[in-house]
């Protein structure tokens, strides 16, 4: 039985998931909690290879079902090698994207049958769904501008990944997919308004974590806790 807590960060492109995951991990560590941070697709050497292949667009010609299969293959390795061992040891796991992204990207955007995705999810994830999923919500136009700027800073001007190249209507559909997940699974998912400052978003996330999970709230303002 898992002893740690499993928190995932979800949302469209450029919503600030990676930044907020880092902020939360730092604050949890200050509270004395051992934290493992990871991402999907990725998190293990094999899964990182799959990540590069998918984001490069080389798998796109095979269709969204092939992408879904690869995502789940990467997730299976990730769960077995990183997530489950960390949880059993008592660590908290914070993951940038998980199964909800497969539902949204390959399901809603790609058109893969939801029953098929649920069957894959049940087989791969089983009872190890997150204790808490934070869905960061942002206007897709703002998010794409942020995402493309971040990719350009990391990989060079003009660079973009497979999903950043989708048109704006696709990103609006993606946003709605995450809103629907938050609506349908309120016991697990919390919607976070990401159209605010980094400190304001981090404060909202900390409030949710202390309210929903077994961690004591502190009196330290989060804008200074991570400096």
From TrEMBL:
Binding site for ATP: 11-18
Keywords (A to Z) from UniProt: ATP-binding, Kinase, Nucleotide biosynthesis, Nucleotide-binding, Transferase
Stretches assigned to the Thymidylate kinase-like domain: 9-205
EC category name: transferase
GO molecular function: ATP binding; dTMP kinase activity
One record GO biological process: dUDP biosynthetic process
InterPro entries in the cross-refs: P-loop_NTPase, Thymidylate_kin-like_dom, Thymidylate_kin_CS, Thymidylate_kinase
EC number(s) given by UniProt: 2.7.4.9
GO CC, any one term: cytosol
Database matches in SUPFAM superfamilies: P-loop containing nucleoside triphosphate hydrolases (SSF52540)
Reaction(s) this enzyme catalyzes, per UniProt: dTMP + ATP = dTDP + ADP
UniProt superkingdom: Bacteria
Entry-linked HAMAP family: Thymidylate_kinase
Family to which the UniProt record says this protein belongs: Belongs to the thymidylate kinase family.
NCBIfam families assigned: DTMP_kinase
PANTHER family in the record: THYMIDYLATE KINASE (PTHR10344), UMP-CMP KINASE 2, MITOCHONDRIAL (PTHR10344:SF4)
Protein name: Thymidylate kinase
Taxonomic placement: Bacteria, Pseudomonadati, Pseudomonadota, Alphaproteobacteria, Hyphomicrobiales
């Amino acid at each position: 039985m898992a002893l740690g807590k499993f928190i995932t960060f979800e949302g469209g492109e450029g919503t600030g998931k990676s930044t907020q995951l880092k902020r939360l991990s730092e604050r949890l560590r200050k509270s004395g909690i051992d934290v493992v941070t990871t991402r999907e697709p990725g998190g293990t050497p094999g899964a990182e290879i799959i990540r590069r292949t998918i984001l490069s667009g080389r798998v796109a010609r095979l269709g969204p079902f092939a992408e879904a299969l690869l995502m789940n293959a990467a997730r299976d390795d990730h769960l077995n090698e990183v997530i489950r061992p960390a949880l059993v040891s008592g660590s908290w796991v914070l993951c940038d994207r998980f199964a909800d992204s497969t539902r949204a990207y390959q399901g809603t955007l790609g058109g893969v049958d939801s029953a098929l995705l649920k069957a894959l999810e049940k087989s791969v994830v089983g009872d190890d769904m997150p204790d808490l999923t934070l869905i960061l919500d942002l206007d897709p136009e703002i998010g794409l501008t942020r995402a493309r700027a971040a990719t350009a800073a990391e990989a060079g001007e003009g660079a973009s990944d497979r999903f950043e190249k989708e048109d704006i209507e696709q990103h609006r559909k993606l946003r709605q997919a995450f809103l629907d997940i938050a609506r349908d699974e309120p016991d697990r998912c919390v919607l976070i308004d990401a159209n605010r400052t980094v400190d304001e978003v981090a404060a909202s996330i900390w409030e949710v974590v202390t309210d929903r999970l077994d961690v004591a709230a502190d009196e330290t303002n989060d804008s200074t806790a991570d400096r």
